[in-house]
Automatic annotation (TrEMBL), chains A, B, C, D, E, F:
InterPro entries membership: AceGlu_kinase-like_sf, Asp/Glu/Uridylate_kinase, Uridylate_kinase, Uridylate_kinase_arch/spir
Name of the protein in question: Uridylate kinase
Originating gene: pyrH
Binding site for UMP: G43, D65, F113, Q114, P115, G116, Q117, S118, T119
Residues given in the record as ATP binding sites: K6, I7, S8, G9, K10, G44, R48, T139, N140, Y145, D148
One GO BP annotation of this record: UDP biosynthetic process
Function: Catalyzes the reversible phosphorylation of UMP to UDP.
Catalytic activity: UMP + ATP = UDP + ADP
Pfam families hit by this protein: AA_kinase
Compartments, as annotated in UniProt: Cytoplasm
Length: 227, 227, 227, 227, 227, 227
């Protein structure tokens, strides 16, 4: 089984190695059971810092996107170096390069690729190129809610939904300003649909149970099915 | 004034150099009046040939996109070599590389960048990165119609419209399968909106009047205004 | 045993996946018997289209060669993507890069390298660098004839000949204009001679019997022996 | 006159664009007077964050250096994008690449190059390669003190000193752990000495007076003379 | 006027800077008169040393060619660094890269490109790509003789000859073993013919008179005319 | 066990393949016992030739370093090509590239990386990045002496010493002029100390006994212990 794991950049924001350990443990459990893993890291606080500073200084959107991409690559290097021999040591800078590195058989860790493309879109392209059975979005909420749970306390968790339902939910919250893409943008969803990729949205702190979730032993988070 | 010129790939499909001559004449007239020009070429028939062959053979979407991108780069090399000293001789393979090459002061010709991104999105990113005053879409119809003019003969040309109106018109005709993006996709429009880029849709055969259109002497095609 | 397989670009000219299937079947039979395979693809109709268009437009020979090389790389990507995990996913752009990629153990697919070098010369350099036991030229005739069989119906097939004889036969038909190199040019033959590479010229449609030919079970095509 | 400007990474640490404006103003005043400028940025807080996190997680020194280098490049991109057309848009990743980019005539902004090399050493190599008349170290103290002024309040500012004196002062405070290089390390000083480069250590907030300092109108900071 | 200057590698073989000075003086005189110059350097003694050592050790021909190419690039770097600001500081590794660098307007210095290609062929490709009016071969004899003048003392200098005559003269002396290409090989001549490039063979020690030769003031060496 | 082997460039100076054979034999014995090997080659006579010629011609130190680095890479290619399939065929040009190549599992051969960095520093960085158990310096003397043995005949060999003692011994003999770094420079020693790398200085002609030395069967040369 092939799994693409998208990790929100916010999990690299403090100077505590616990989150790195969670990632490694989860990756190791998958590898030891014979699965392959691709990892996409978001830009998190570092991205936001440089984008905010740049925007205040008057730098243009395409260049702000590039700052965010370089920040996400810093997170990717952190993960790749921490995984050591398990991972390819160079962070690819385009899907073509990703595909080339993926051919060697190791975990490949990547950040963003191109301005105008969220790391969620990167994750969907990586899922497509690797023929992934599952795209896992590890985030700071327990799954997909009918509203943004950070803004509305009455939001309800959906354990199973279609991409059409997801699109409706996300429609109002989307933006393409650098640094503000959330969860999944319309392009990411289109790619998920064109290649029929299953998506699991799960709380980062449950990553250690990923193998159990995948094998169907337990059911946590939200499963999004392409239509 | 800075102009990004997006040329549909179909204008490289026959073995007649006339279309190349039209492009050169139009570029020269702009350069001679002190403007700067970036060019984005579509993949046209070559892209379609390789994508169709690949799809029949069972190659996956992300890789089909790559074949289409390489085809669009072939068209870009053709234009760059034909422009000779006026153009940068290497076709950039990402927005970062485009920005670097653009710094030298010549015309830069590019094809596609990344799977999941139409050459229309490339053109909008290039417009953004170059701070273009105008994005010109040179195509095989006279402008934006209220319906796809190739399919509906009663379609009416709109000489001026907003991106909101454009989105509504295009909504039904869009697809993200490799090789089937048309005119402008939602992501291209979002980028146009976030950076307030004006778009002119014009018939390829009127490219020789581009300088007159830009300076407001004549009014041809459709002007799309971002909101 | 190591085999370099040079496939004429014309086998990628129509939108039918049969030729791709023939290549894959032939490669698989070799790999499954423990052999290694390098593939060199010609530029075919795509190369001719761009070279003709470019030449009419007045583009110079070295740049026409480059257009042809990019076209041959498009064919190489098609083959590499179709072979999937069997092949290295990036098409090398020089012999140095080829050698590097070859080190990973997969099939490596390449198009042209440099202006002034036919893909036949590329194939002979690849044979040399990989220490190939055999260079197979898959073409649209049944082998080497004493005259060009497309022009002279009385041409006689030679089942075994030396490079000296081959040179005499080819002498009159050679040209170095971009896109017109035929079968084997003098430089390709010199490289074959300096490294004592055996060459098999065989009809493309017999590629499925390659394993049998190599193991000496059947004898088809022409064997060219270096002197 | 050619000036290499080394800016401590800590000046990119808060989300206020003032420091960027100081840099741009200072660079513009030099360019407008006909001078050329190279810029080297330190890694600052971003480097320290990733190095600390990585070290706690057990990542090795050479790889921690790489994280710090990528962080310093993020600062370099921020400066390069903010300078816009004045600067080369790509941050070089080695001295060879720096030299190549420097040839185009623009400001070139660089971060770190190699593990084991502080950005101060990078700045001395850049001074050497560009044949700089002056290496300016813009830092958070008013110049070189006879002791580290952050630790000893009785430290005295030296307005003029030799590299021999500097070496003695710095001897005790040096370390080669990733992220802890200070002001100038022994290798940076050796390079300064072998190519006889003059060094000016100056408070960052006085950068706007750089042109006056250079032309000898005013005298601020410490001048270090190679022996 | 555009001039490609091919300098035999043997002029970099001793530790005396005189030959570098001759090259610089000759280049400067051409540049100051408004001409453009491309330089191709041979591998000389360094190439021969590594090729001989490698061949004795059993390294294969294609790899020996690569050693010779790296040696010729060392000579190219020496010339480029010595020319300083007049020359592009990076030695291109392929014709594509050469063309890209040539676009910046400086002297570009290159060594070899690809195994199986002599630096004489490189020089003819460079002449073609730059649209050179003249290819100058600076060598250790006074021009083309009717026999190899190093072997036959009765050899007669030819002040004017066609490429057909040249081919006949060189026919017997050619070889494609790495490191043994002489003056002009058949492929170099074919390229010269297909693009109608004039060739001047001249003694290296007369390079200082190059401007006079080009402007027709004096007549030295042999002029080879393509047919 | 992981071993980094630094070979002085002077062992590639004559046209005799014996030294290559010694290296291969020693590498093979290590690989066959399950160890991994990284190799760093010095620049030797080729470096000195180009650096001397360049310095006489007035080329600057940073550029002379680059010439020396290219020469050391020529030696690295020679070793890599001679080792054939055992080694990675491309010589890395930075530590980042080295780390990437090292991930494939083969021997990686490298020359210099950056101006201002001796190949001894490269070797210490490579030891650090590969987590080497031992850094072996193969040189033309029998180990570390209390004085430079080439200059003082009364010099005494030290079979065991600390990096502090080594620093004292080497202090007077060090220089940072291109081409004159000796044995170990201060930066190399600092890296050895920060990552606690054991160093063995051994006569090149004893390389064939390396496996025995490593396994503690025999004791030759000097062991330097980091403090
Ligand atoms: N309907 C919804 N259900 C769940 N989450 C939602 C929903 N709408 C918006 N969100 C927001 O999406 C966020 C998840 O996106 P996340 O931050 O993990 O990815 P990211 O933005 O790409 O990360 P980063 O940019 O920091 O790397 C949640 O914190 C939540 O606030
Ligand atoms: N409402 C509309 N108005 C105008 N054109 C439309 C509309 N809807 C669809 N189209 C189609 O869009 C096409 C223009 O897209 P065009 O082919 O120029 O770009 P492209 O698809 O990127 O080109 P290529 O992929 O061949 O390089 C027209 O031929 C037209 O059929
Ligand atoms: N004798 C001294 N005189 C002046 N400063 C000294 C001295 N000794 C140590 N320092 C320290 O050197 C520091 C300057 O180094 P600075 O932080 O500017 O460069 P840096 O460490 O390379 O920056 P960064 O790594 O954050 O990019 C001062 O803050 C000061 O504390
Ligand atoms: N008929 C001929 N006329 C002139 N020179 C000839 C002839 N035949 C052979 N040569 C040889 O060609 C040599 C010139 O080639 P030259 O060494 O300049 O180029 P090169 O071999 O490419 O240089 P390098 O490989 O050393 O860089 C002369 O020294 C001469 O001996
Ligand atoms: N105390 C010492 N003990 C041993 N060797 C010493 C000492 N001091 C100086 N040396 C010198 O160091 C030399 C070893 O350095 P070596 O030439 O092997 O490395 P290198 O200079 O990096 O090689 P290259 O630059 O030629 O590649 C010996 O030849 C010796 O003369
Ligand atoms: Co986000
Ligand atoms: Co289209
Ligand atoms: Co052909
Ligand atoms: Co610091
Ligand atoms: Co020669
Ligand atoms: Co030395
Ligand atoms: Mg994000
Ligand atoms: Mg050395």
């Amino acid at each position: 089984m092939i799994v693409t794991l998208k990790i929100s950049g916010k999990f690299f924001d403090d100077e505590n190695p616990t989150n790195l350990e969670i990632i490694k443990k989860s990756v190791l459990s998958l590898l030891n059971s014979g699965h392959r893993v691709a990892i996409v890291t978001g830009g998190g606080g570092t991205a936001r810092k440089y984008i905010n500073l740049g925007r205040k200084a008057g730098i243009k959107e395409a260049h702000l996107d590039l700052l965010g991409i370089w920040a996400s690559r810093l997170n990717a290097y952190l993960v790749a170096f921490y995984l050591g021999d398990l991972a390819y040591s160079k962070v690819p800078e385009s899907l073509e390069e990703f595909i080339e590195k993926w051919g060697y058989g190791k975990v490949v860790v990547t950040g963003g690729f191109q301005p105008g493309q969220s790391t969620a879109t990167v994750a969907s392209l990586v899922s497509e190129a690797t023929n992934s059975d599952l795209l896992v979005l590890a985030t700071n909420v327990d799954g997909v809610y009918d509203k943004d749970p950070r803004k509305f306390s009455e939001a309800r968790l959906l354990s199973r939904l279609s991409t059409i339902e997801l699109k409706k939910i996300l429609e109002l919250t989307q933006s393409v300003n650098a640094g503000t893409y959330e969860l999944l943008d319309p392009l990411a969803i289109k790619i998920i649909e064109r290649s029929k990729i299953k998506v699991l949205v799960v709380n980062f702190k449950n990553l250690d149970k990923l193998l159990d979730i995948i094998t169907g032993n337990i059911s946590i988070g939200s499963l999004v099915l392409p239509v």
